[in-house]
Amino acid sequence: MTTPHDRDDIHDLVGVGIGPFNLSLAALADGVPGAGLRTLFLDARPAFSWHPGLLLEGTILQVPFLADLVTMADPTSRWSYLNYLREHDRMFPFFFSERFHIPRREYDHYCRWVTENLPSCRFDARVTDLTWDESSDAFLVTHRSSDGTVSSVRARQVVLGVGTNPVVPDPLRPYLEGGGNGDGAGDGNGNGVRVLHSADYRTHRARLAGLDDVTVLGAGQSGAEVVLDLLRHQDGGGAGGPYVRWLARTPAFAPMEYSKIGLEHFTPDYIRYFRALPEARRESLVREQWQLYKGVSEETLGEIHDELYERTIGGTEPRAALHPGVAVEAVERAGDAYVLTCRHTQQDRLFEVRTSAVVSATGYAAARPGFLDGLAKLVDWDDRGRYRIDGDYRVALDRRISGALYVQNAELHTHGVGAPDLTLGAWRAATILNAVAGRTVLRVPERAAWTTFGAPGAPASDPEGNP
Description:
By secondary structure, the chain is an alpha/beta fold.
């Protein structure tokens, strides 16, 4: 059935997707003095859940707790992490723990607390269509609930925060099981899931820990955490648990850049500099700067080393192997095992790996959601089919559309390495909120870095000439 809507009932802003970035925007929009915005945020899931497949015990957020949903833009907001601690009577335990980086499971719980108490958040609402309604001069957002009810709302402006999709190497795709969302099923032969993305790891970790040999692909934080968890499933003598193999295309298992000056790449200053560069240079920079956003925390690398050290006491060989600089070129099924044809990129040498299971911790990438099909012809895509995005995170649209479409975490190609980083989440949300309101409702800093990224005295402007 379809529920009717009042044609005069138009929201100022509708958000599609409720991950940390759109939730940040929802939280900042709530209670901002004088904002007066009517907002609604929709998500297909039954409740908030942040990377459930990797909410492992002992894992911590890679950014400090101040990079919560609101503090970097509005430290007085009631939706801050510190207020969450107060509401849950955890302020003193947190204080005595002297934590700067918080458990990932608690960050997930904090975000769920916000969604459960923020009236603008609505779950079980899968957006199925987004179109421009000329008669009302507004976007029409159609969504469906799990019971089949179809509803629609209209909005002057829409922000897409639909997240990213799991990425796996092409040779592995025919064997991939699960959807990268924690609900992967068995392979139909009673063997359970054997090839999966790390997003589904927690669901199948017990099964994987009981196998003889598990190969993990990817040198980022997720890959390192899966490797560490599998190593910890080996018994003290090293005989139990799986043999753990870690393969990665990167030339090293390297720590993420975490120096105080190096972190200034995650500031508005660097975004302005990056946006002013030619497109070709931006493309190459994103590839070159992998260690800024794809590296591993120094602590996790240290823990892996410590686990391996324990397993070599008395001359015992560790039941593990670490191979950087390796690309997987082909995969074949061989009974209950998989044979991976690999190439060492620096030596240009081929070798084979036989393994019982593969966990592809190879990251995520932005993808065009299907509900955009009805609007696709009105979007000004770039030559690679990506959004053209201005300094306010506004997507370039046909001039006939008076409304605005914004995106979050889909602008790596235009705004640089800070796009997926939680550090800039509240600042970006405040930037969008100011653009939506048409005035400054939350002040954002003019300068946030000591580093001058461009030539001295050179003006910083984006490709459209905006400061």
